[in-house]
Amino acid sequence: MSLPTTERGTRTRAKLLEAAEAVFAKYGYTAASVVRITEHAGVGQGTFYLYFSSKLEIFEELVEDLNRRVRHAMSEASSGATNRIESERAGFRAFFEFTAQHPALYRVVREAEFVSPKALRLHYSRIVEGYITGLQDAQAHGEVGDIDPAVAAWALMGIGEMIGMRWVLWGDGSESGEDADPMASGTSRVPDAVFDNMMRFIHRGLAAPDSQSAEGERS
Q1: Residue spans in the chain of domains classed CATH 1.10.10.60
Q2: CB-based contacts of 218: which residues, under 8 Å, 6+ apart?
Q3: Alpha carbon 179 to chain centroid distance?
C-alpha cells in the first residue's frame, strides 16, 4: 500500500475507497474487479496501482477504513455521556446511523471471513478492545456488575450487529406481518420501541445489583 504525499493524492485514494465500498457491496468480492472500482471512481487503472497493489489489498484497507469510521462515530456520540448506560445508548444510536448510511459494512465484514480472516479478526478485536476498556472503567465506578468485561463486550457487539441487521437492513416486517421475515424492506433505522427494549435488556445485563433494585423501584 502506498500512502499519498499530496492533498490531491489523498482525495484520489479516498475516492477509490469510496468506490470500493460501493462495488464490493453491490457485486461481492468475487465479482468485483479493479476495473469496476476505477470506473466507479472515475480514474484510470494505472492510478489505482499507485495506491493499492491488488483487489485484496483495497478490500482489506476498506475493512479497516469502515472499522475506523464506525468506531469514531460511536466514540464521538458517547463522549458526553455521564455513565455507562448513557454511553451504550449513544454509541448504539451512532452505530445504527452509520449502518444505515453504510450498509456495505455488513456485506464487506461478512465476506472478510472468507476473503481475509485476519481483516475480520482485526475489525472485531478493535471494537472489543474499546468496549473492554470502557466496561472496566465503569466497573471501577460501580456502574457495571460482576461480569467479565470481555464476555460482555462480545455479547454487546453481537446485540448491536443483529439488531442492526434485522431492523436497519431487513426492515420492520410490516409487509408480511412476520417479525422474523428477512425479506422485509429496510427501514434504515431501528424503531424507538425496539431500541428501548434493547436498552432495557442491556441495562439489566450490565447494571450492578443496587442499580437494578433502583430501576425496579422506579418502574
Answers
A1: 1-53
A2: none
A3: 23
User: Which grid coordinates belong to 214?
Assistant: 433502583
Q: Are 74 and 85 in contact (CB under 8 A)?
A: no
State which fold the 59-218 domain adopts. Tetracycline Repressor; domain 2 (1.10.357)
pLDDT in tens, 77-128: 999 999 999 999 999 999 999 999 998 899 999 999 999 999 999 999 999 9
**C-alpha distances out from residue 4 to 8, 14, 26, Å:** 8, 10, 27
Q: Which of 195, 192, 190 is nearest to 172 (CA)?
A: 190
Does 1-53 carry CATH code 1.10.10.60?
A: yes
Provide the whole-model pTM: 0.85
Instruction: Give residue 119's Cα distance to chain centre.
Output: 14
